[in-house]
Amino acid sequence: MFIDTHCHLDAEEFGDTQANVVRDAQAVGVSRIVVPSVARANFDSVRSLCEQYPNCAPAYGIHPMYTDTAMPDDLLVLRDYLQQHRPIAVGEIGMDFFINHYDQARQEFFFVEQLKLAREFNLPVLLHIRKATDTILKHLRQYKVKGGIAHAFNGSRQQADEFIKLGFKLGFGGAMTYSRATKLRELAATLPLESIVLETDAPDIPPDFLQRGQPNKPEYLVSIAQTLATLRSMPLIEIAQATTHNARQVLPL
Question: Could you give the strand order of the β-sheet that contains 196-198, starting from the edge strand earlier in sequence?
Answer without folding.
Answer: 2-4, 30-36, 56-60, 89-96, 125-130, 148-150, 168-172, 196-198
